[in-house]
Amino acid sequence: MANVTNLLHINVDKLFEQCGVADIDLVHKRLQSEVELKREELRTMVGERYRDLLKAADTIGDMRNTAGSIIENVDTIQVACRKLNDHQLIGFRTDHQQRKLRKTTNDTFHAVIVQIKLLTSLPEMIWSAIDGEDFFVATQLFIFSRHISTGLQLDSNAALMAKFPVAKKQWAVLSQFFFTIKQNCSSCLEREDLQPEVAAKCLASLVLLESCQLDHILSVFVQMRLKAFAGVLAEGSRHEKVRDKILASLKLLMNTVELIHTCFVGVDGLLMRELNFITGENAQPTIGLIKSEDPKIIQTLPDIISRFRPRIQLEPLSDERVGKHSKIWLQNVEKIATNQLSKLMNLVPSIKVLHDIRKLSLTVAKKPESWSSTCAELSLQESLDFYSKFYQPLINTRVRTIIKQCWLETIAQNGDDVSKLLTMNASNKQLRDVKSYVWQESSEDVPLNLKDALDCANLASHQLLMKARAFPPPLVELVSSLDSRLESLTKDVTTFLGASTPDEAQQLIEFYSDCSSESISQLLTTIKSADYERSPENYVLLARLLVAFKELCPALKKCLTPSQLNNAETLMPWQSDELPLDAKKDRWNNAAGLLDEESLAFWRLWLEQFVKKWPVLEGNVGYHTLLTEFPLWDTVTIEENDEQNQPVQSTIRVPALPSFPLQKLLHVIATLLNSLIPQTIPKRIISQILDLIGDRLLTHYQTLAASEFIQRNQNCSLQYYFDLKFIQLLFPADREKKQLSDALVATYRTHIDPFDFDVFHAHVNANVKRAVTRMQHFFGVLLVNGEPVLGGSTAATATKAAGGQDRNPNILALASNSASETWFPLLPIVTKEAAAATQGNAGQEATKVVKVADEKDTFRIF
C-alpha cells in the first residue's frame, strides 16, 4: 500500500499488477482526499493573503458590469423618450397598484443593495473580532453573513441578482472564515491557562458553526484538553525547564476539571447561558453587532435580515454523559502520564529539583473548598488528587533512581581515587614511609583549643588522631572526598524527607539504607577488583583504607542508620546506637563488620607475603652451632654441704639467653611490624602471626630434636630446652599447641642427664624469667594482650621508687595553651635499690643462693 507521501510517485501499471481492487480503490480515495485537501489549503491561503486584491478585482469587475448596465438603461430610456415624443404623449396616469408595485420594486432593489453592502463590510468586522480574540462575535457575524448570502442566492428576482454578481463572489471570501474561526477556537481551547468565560464562548462558537449537540462538543473539548496536556509535556512546549512543564501540566489538570464543571454541568452551565444569550426569545438580533452603518439604511432591510438571530435545537446534557466523558478523560490522562510524564520526570537531574517540584506542586494542587462536590457531580472520586495519583509515585520513583545513580557515580569516582592512591603508594613519601610520618612532630598535630579537640564532626582534621591510626594525608583526603559526596547526598535526602508524609519518609529511609548497604558491597567489590600491583604495601594501604571508611565517614553511618536521617546529632564513628530488635536491619553494624572482614582479608594477603620475609632457621647443627648460634652462658656457683656437713662450692654454667637464630627471627619480625605502626594492626592478625611463629618454631625444634648430634650433646639440648621454655613463657599458646610444646620440651629433657637437670632446673627457669623480663619490651608488639608477661612487680617497684616525683598521668595532652606545661611528664627513674628489690622479688622462688658470675654481661641481639 502506497503511503500518502508517495502518492505523487505511484506507478499506475505496477499498482494494477501488484494490488487488488480494494487497495486500488483506497489509493484512489486517498488521492481524491489529498487533492481536495490541497485545493482547500490553496483556497484558504489565497483567500487570506490576497483577499484585498481579490476584493478589488471583483469590485472592478462589478463596476464594469454596473457601468455597462447603466449605459444600457440610459439607451433604453432614450428609446422610450423617442417613442413618447413620436406618439405626442404629454403625460400618463398611474393608479394605486402601479405605485405600490413600483415602491415594492424599489424597496427590493434597495434591500439587495444594502445586503450586498453588508456582505462587503462583514469580512473586515470578522477579522477585527478574530484579532481581538472575540471568536463568539466573529461566529455570529459569520452566521449572519451566511444567512444574507443564502437569502440573496435564493432570491426569486434572478434578473436583479444577475446585475449584482458580487454577492456570489463575496460569499466565496466569507466562507473561508468557517475554518479560520474554528481553528482559532480549537487553539484557544488547547491553552494551558484557560478561563471559563473564554472556554464557554469558544465552545458556543463551535456549537453554532457545526450545529452539533452538547455531547459532541464535550467530547471534542475533552480531546482538546488531552492534546493540551500532552503538548505541555512535549519537547516543543513553550516551557524550557522540566520543572515548569510539570507544574504547568498539573495546573492544567486542575483547570480542566473546573472548566468541565463550569461549562457543562446543569442547565445553568456557562455554555448554555452563552447560547441562550443569543438564541433565546429575548435575544437581540445579530444586526445589533453592526455599529458602523446608518440606521436609516438598516431600516431598508427586510425583517428576515433585520430580526435574524441564530437558532439551534439542543438536547440537555445528562449527568451520566458528563460523568462518562470525565472518566474517559481521566483514563487518557493516566495513559499520557504513564508515557510522557514519566519520561519527563526522568529528566530531573537532582533531588533538590525534585524537592522544589514537589513543594510547588503541593501549592498548585491545593484544592478549592468546592472540590469534593465538583468531583462528585462529574462522577469522579471526591478525594481525587492529581498529585497523589500521577505525580507523587513518579517523584518517589525518580528519587530512588537518583539515589542509585549517585551511589553508582560515587562508587566509580571512589574506584578511580583508589587506583590513583595505589599508584601514588610507591612515590609518595607519606604513603611509602608511614612510620616517619607518624613520628614526625608537627605544629598542627594538637588542636589549638579544647573545643576543636572535642569536635567529633570532623575527625579527619585531628592530625594527631590520624597519626595514631596510621592514616596518611592522601588516604584521609580520599576518605574525606567520599564522605563529602555521601554527606551531600544525605543532605538532599534529608531535605526531601522534610515535606514527606510519615509513610513516605519511612519507605524512602528504608530504601536509602538498603541501597547504601548494597552499594557498600559494590564499593568493596570495585576496590577488590581494581587493577593494581599485588604488593604488601598496597595490601596494607587498602586494609587501612577500609578501616578509615568506617571511622572517618560519619555520612556513611548516617546512610545506614535510619534513625539518624532525621537526627541532627552527630555520633562518634566508634559509638553505636542501641541494637535494633531485628538484627538483619542493623545495617551499620553489618556494613562495619563487612569492612572489618574485608580489611582483615587484605591483612591476610599481606601476611602471606610478610611470612616470606622471615629469616630461615637452619636445621643442620654441629659444633659450629655451639660457636656461632649460642650466646654466652651464665656461671653459677653452688654451695652445698658434703657428708661431713662441710660447705662445698661448685661451679655450673647455664643458658642465660635464647639462641641467636631465635632472637634474630623474633627481632626481624618485630622490626618489620614496627615499621607498619604495630598498634594499628588488628589483634586477629597479630594472633595469626603468633600462630605462624609458633608453628614454625615447633617444626624447627622438632627437626632439631631428631638430630643425632643434639641427642648426644647435652649442652645443645639444654640450650634448646631454654629456648622452648622462653617461647612458652613469652608466647602462651592454646591447649593443643601447649601439649605439643610440652612434649617437645620433654623430648629435649630426655637428652639431659637427670642429675644435672635437677641441678640446672631452678637456675634455667630463673634465667628464662629474667630473659623474658629483659626482652619482652623489645618484642612487645608480639605479646598477645599487649601487656608485659612478667611486669607486675617491676612496675610496682618502679612506681614506689618514683614516689617523690610528679604523679601527673602519663598521657599525651590533647591541647596545651600554657608554655610552662610539657606534653610528656618526666618518666620515673629506676634506682639501684629499686633494681635490687626487683631482682630480689624475682628470685624468691629459688631456695639456693645464686650468684651471677659476670654481672657485666649485656643483652645481645642480632
UniProtKB/TrEMBL annotation:
GO cellular component terms, semicolon-separated: Golgi membrane
One example of a Gene Ontology biological process annotation: protein transport
Cross-referenced Pfam families: VPS51_Exo84_N
InterPro entries cross-referenced by the UniProt entry: COG1
Keywords assigned by UniProt, alphabetized: Golgi apparatus, Membrane, Protein transport, Transport
Signal sequence extent: none
PANTHER family found in the cross-reference section: CONSERVED OLIGOMERIC GOLGI COMPLEX SUBUNIT 1 (PTHR31658:SF0)
Stated family: Belongs to the COG1 family.
Protein name per UniProt: Conserved oligomeric Golgi complex subunit 1
Source organism per UniProt: Culex pipiens pipiens
